[in-house]
Fold this protein.
Amino acid sequence: MITLALSKGRILDDTLPLLEQAGIRLAGKASGRELILPTTDPQVRIIIVRATDVPTYVQYGGADLGVAGRDVLIEHGGDGLYQPVDLGIARCRMSVAAPETFDYKAAVRRGARLRIATKYVTAARRHFAAKGVHVDLIKLYGSMELAPLVGLADAIVDLVSTGNTLRANRLVEVEHFLDISARVAVNQAALKLKGERLRPLIERLDAAARAKVES
Ligand code: AMP
């Protein structure tokens, strides 16, 4: 049996058509509450977990492979995971955003120490370290946009897709530093033990993702 971990929402919605291209469909109608979904391939099942838990399930073998955003994989650290395919789905970018009234570029130029609120502390730390900007990172679990509005932080690091969330909170995207999309993460031990079944599935997903980009 091959177990594939997906998360509800964008990842599930965008992965199912690729799986279908790879010859695998959900078996029957799901009510939306089941956490284990059988597929038309009796040897493949899907489990539904939180997006941030996908790498953990794969790392410890609760799933043989999973699909997770690059943001989630960076924050997890990637231990024990092999990441062979960028599916090119659930695309967005990781950016620094600040209130219209805060001159971020001038603050960086004069070497100010910045307070940055984010859920993505690993990616943010890497980015500011590479730029040589001194920051105090404040870890939040959601609604980062609020932090600069109430004086908790000078700026935030968040995912941006349309930019609507930032605009609605009068924040401006001042630095886009990472392109995000969802990747396949595979348990390295499973790849050795079940390689004969896993490799063709990964290859078919890769081919489906490439065909989607070309069309
Ligand atoms: P938007 O208003 O379209 O710029 O979307 C921004 C919000 O949606 C952010 O706060 C993110 O948390 C979330 N978001 C957008 N795209 C993604 C994605 N590909 N993966 C996860 N979250 C996303």
Q: What stands out?
A: DSSP finds nine helices and nine strands in the chain. Residues 27 and 83 are 27 Å apart (CA to CA).
